[in-house]
Amino acid sequence: xxxxxxxxxxxxxxxxxxxxxxxxxxxxxxxxxxxxxxxxxxxxxxxxxxxxxxxxxxxxxxxxxxxxxxxxxxxxxxxxxxxxxxxxxxxxxxxxxxxxxxxxxxxxxxxxxxxxxxxxxxxxxxxxxxxxxxxxxxxxxxxxxxxxxxxxxxxxxxxxxxxxxxxxxxxxxxxxxxxxxxxxxxxxxxxxxxxxxxxxxxxxxxxxxxxxxxxxxxxxxxxxxxxxxxxxxxxxxxxxxxxxxxxxxxxxxxxxxxxxxxxxxxxxxxxxxxxxxxxxxxxxxxxxxxxxxxxxxxxxxxxxxxxxxxxxxxxxxxxxxxxxxxxxxxxxxxxxxxxxxxxxxxxxxxxxxxxxxxxxxxxxxxxxxxxxxxxxxxxxxxxxxxxxxxxxxxxxxxxxxxxxxxxxxxxxxxxxxxxxxxxxxxxxxxxxxxxxxxxxxxxxxxxxxxxxxxxxxxxxxxxxxxxxxxxxxxxxxxxxxxxxxxxxxxxxxxxxxxxxxxxxxxxxxxxxxxxxx
Amino acid sequence: xxxxxxxxxxxxxxxxxxxxxxxxxxxxxxxxxxxxxxxxxxxxxxxxxxxxxxxxxxxxxxxxxxxxxxxxxxxxxxxxxxxxxxxxxxxxxxxxxxxxxxxxxxxxxxxxxxxxxxxxxxxxxxxxxxxxxxxxxxxxxxxxxxxxxxxxxxxxxxxxxxxxxxxxxxxxxxxxxxxxxxxxxxxxxxxxxxxxxxxxxxxxxxxxxxxxxxxxxxxxxxxxxxxxxxxxxxxxxxxxxxxxxxxxxxxxxxxxxxxxxxxxxxxxxxxxxxxxxxxxxxxxxxxxxxxxxxxxxxxxxxxxxxxxxxxxxxxxxxxxxxxxxxxxxxxxxxxxxxxxxxxxxxxxxxxxxxxxxxxxxxxxxxxxxxxxxxxxxxxxxxxxxxxxxxxxxxxxxxxxxxxxxxxxxxxxxxxxxxxxxxxxxxxxxxxxxxxxxxxxxxxxxxxxxxxxxxxxxxxxxxxxxxxxxxxxxxxxxxxxxxxxxxxxxxxxxxxxxxxxxxxxxxxxxxxxxxxxx
Lengths: 517, 517
Prior knowledge:
The structure is a homodimer.
Chain A: H1 3-13, E1 18-21, H2 28-33, E2 41-44, H3 48-62, E3 66-71, H4 72-89, E4 93-99, H5 115-120, E5 125-128, H6 132-147, E6 153-159, H7 160-164, H8 184-195, E7 200-204, H9 211-222, E8 227-230, E9 237-239, E10 247-248, H10 253-260, E11 265-269, E12 293-298, H11 304-315, H12 338-348, E13 354-358, H13 366-370, E14 376-379, H14 389-399, E15 405-410, H15 411-414, H16 420-426, E16 431-437, H17 442-450, H18 458-462, H19 473-479, E17 484-487, H20 490-502, E18 507-512
Parallel strand pairs in A: 1-2, 1-3, 3-4, 4-6, 5-6, 7-8, 7-11, 8-10, 11-12, 13-14, 13-15, 15-16, 16-18, 17-18
Antiparallel strand pairs in A: 9-14
Helix pairs in contact in A: 1-6, 3-4, 3-14, 8-11, 9-11, 12-20
């Protein structure tokens, strides 16, 4: 068989069953091979950033990689921003980039570019397949690299002549190591800190935000041994009624500092040291309070939940986790605001929903409004590269066809990868998209205000204004085959959200908020 | 003043008057500085690929750089594909990438990434500004690098603390060298080849496709000294009635080989050696016929027109250029096809139009149909990274507000950067977009067919199909504030195209073609 078929057969053998694709000429043999490898489902995306964001959403929910099939350097470039988010999420993901035939590269044809340089910026593993005989093994290594805990982006560059040449064969899946057990002395060291009686915070991240980790951590909180916080932007957090709740560290450094104030011990459980998202003049980059000692209990690739359970067994052997009590906001009345929109979503969020949250400033009230809703998963913007939400929802819905996916999107962010809606329609994915339309890059308005001495005039204000012209998201959705409606009041949003959840397939609701000021 | 203001003041001093922007927090001081540097017009784009494509279109038409203002590594990543096209076009363009404050980088905040690696893939010049005192000089060098013939992408990485710190000052514009005169011996060597009487082709590219170069080359053709061809994807070609016409080298290698067949001498005048766009099994990468000698008359950064004039003075001193005769197709009747759509455009193309051509397979008939139209400029997809056309039109219209801009777009390509329409509406640019909607990646259908032995089944065919669901471009345009209509017959297209040209501001026409097969 040719290299293309061997790569696809190897990937399916490694558990890859979805391929989000925006292919070109150099990938045509891979595309053709999809017909002889039906175990791999090709999903067409109209832009590479949709394909990579979808593969991220798939990997976060399935716990195994999807493939993203991209065309040469420019195709990879278009997919990089969401690969950056996937890298920060620790998502298992295999990127397959078709390249020119190996002998063609020295001719510097128009699409020639430095693919390795681009891939290296987002990938933990990069290889250029050198010959058909090795292509299967290369693909197996890519899948294994992607699955190495906590998960990562592995990029396989596949020259067209390796794809089309015969003499290849599939390789068996490689062994993938489990998350590393945390040595007893690290658990003991964290236990000693907690036993000091000094104020302590456990910062949870990665696998620590799934139910087993949350329950173990909750025992420690119940025993009064530590306060719990979640990293600011988790890849996937299980939450809702019956699951111990954990507050997220705030995005703004001043609020995050207040959350961490007074802590003498900061225990990292799958999370990284907290740092300010951006730097500001005169403000420290690190959010660790002065005089606070940092203890690494478990890194992202470790057995975070096991370490937390071990720590709880040592420090709070008799404590029980504190599950979140069920509870929903009442359905609100009145003109729509970000606050009552959140209440509507909290009131109606279905059990086992997957929420892809890129609501940004409009999402301020979402955490509170949904805290006691039935159990659900919450996926956030891990790397800060906006344009993630609609693609992420695509992949999550492909990975979990029996669950409702809710994409909560800021208007500005939605426009980066708006063509994801077309894939929602094409695959008839059960995704309800709510666009929080305040017609402004509101977060930048906030940042402009924070500049302090620098006064922002009309030229600057104009660069964060999305109202000239206003964007009609219902028209955009309809143009791509997604039924859409607009809500200007809370009851309208409730009625439309209910309808969208009840009906199969994708829907979009434009939540017409007051203009951000 | 702070570094941000010094950079902007320096750029305006270097002739930069437009800044296509999709900024974020790390660029807020640059955004704020726009109010004190009103000579630099900020133009908001909803996606970075629109900003970079617009800067490309601006630079191609203005002959001086626009700036593209981008946010950190992911923002640059989103702009890379159109920077790739700009690099291939030799467009003068200054990319300003805001980065984290220098002291913040080691904390590996969520948006941290390897900006230099990304920038290096598309830029001829990259620098990270190290301190406010040098920021002005860095900006001046960036502008000079962008203007070095033939023009190129210069990327200035500006850490936030360099932007916000005081102690900076503008730097004067640096000297920019003119295109290099071609030494007499190179002209003489080409002249000897043409005087041999053996079949010769002059391949024109870059500045050789502007009127002075075309007229000089035409004298050689008129004297029977050589046939003329244009590079396949020119950045900007002047053409139409009164200007010598030159056929473009075909995209498909088999047709290009036929055009070059029999040549014993190939004279490169601002063009690169012709190579196959993609590699195919058993096909050569080089398009230079066996036994054909290649002579470099002028490289892209040389005085191409001067070299051609010198060559004509030597070989064809008495010959006169052969201007294209005026002539337009008759307005056709019947259901719309790619062929009669081209006739409509040729029949109505206004004088001094700027055509941004990303019509791909649907554009096959455009060259013939517009050859005798009034003089106009034709801008093509130089680097093969689709998603260029609508952004390119944005920048061309900003650079030339008194000219009609026509964006001829394939449906598949349009979707990569569709949000450019919003900037068309916001700036009320005089752009008429025609979407050639055949509901297929038709070029990939052709490539699948060319695979030969490999038979493409339903899974493969599905990955090039844009009909499920069909995309309603009139709805997309209306959603972003651009008046739109759909044409199903040639007379409908003619009426709508006329109307769009007569009315100021942007318009979009969806040309509903028969489905590509």
